[in-house]
Amino acid sequence: MARSAAKSQKPAAEPPLGRKDWIEAAITMLAEDNVEALRVDTLAEKLGVTKGSFYWHFEGREDLLFAVLDEWRLRMTSQIQSLILDRSGTPWERVERLLRIAISARPDVPGGPFETTLRDWARRDAKVASVVRDVDAERVRFLHQLYREAGLDGSDVEYFAELHMAFVIGTRITVDPADRDEINRRRRIGAALLLPRERAKKP
């Protein structure tokens, strides 16, 4: 009797997708393709839901795209700064940690495929370009802080911050994220260029 009653019960429904789920799915898709390829019906198909779920959270495709842009801004500024500063270590270890995060196989890190897609979008949209410039400026300010805390001063702070940005973005454009050996080689090059005081202390 109890067994038959149990059989008749319907399985618990899966929780509905939230706004964050759609944003994360869009980030994954944008790391693999361009902005023009992002379509609501394609995204819904990948998530295994109807488009009705999407319109519960967003007014339309453009609303999703700018929510994704806001998420990128947050990750590249306050979130990554907290990740670097909230952990113990020397100032040079913090610079090295930031370098290792950026030069990794992940698609959503600084300079990664997701960011490359957004930068391409910024070439054709003034609003997006403004956000990208603001984020870049904040990232450079954070690098200035890290290098000052590590003991650099004067123009060295500016030079190393700009070099760090250029090296990370250039590396991500030219390296296959699946090539672990090359990623590790670029990390060694980055350490030699961007951690000079730390390197000088090593025997």
Which regions are unreliable across 5 or more consecutive residues at pLDDT < 50?
A: 1-14
Beta content: under 5%
- Morphology call: elongated
Compressed to H and E, one letter per element, the order equals: HHHHHHHHHHH
Task: State the distance separating the first and last CA atoms.
Answer: 77 Å
How much helix is in the residues?
A: over 70%
Oligomer: single chain
Brief descriptors of the model:
203 residues, mainly alpha, 11 helices, 0% strand, elongated, disordered N terminus
Plain-language structure description:
The structure is a single chain. The chain is an all-alpha fold and 203 residues long. It has a domain at 70-201. Helix content is 72%, strand content 0%. The protein contains eleven helices and no strands. The protein has helices at 2-8, 19-30, 40-47, 51-57, 61-85, 91-102, 113-122, 126-149, 155-174, 180-194, 196-201. Helix 6 runs antiparallel to helix 8 (126-149). It starts with a helix and ends with a helix. Mean pLDDT is 87; it is low at 1-14.
Q: Could you give a short description of this structure?
A:
By secondary structure, the chain is mostly helical. It contains eleven helices and no strands.
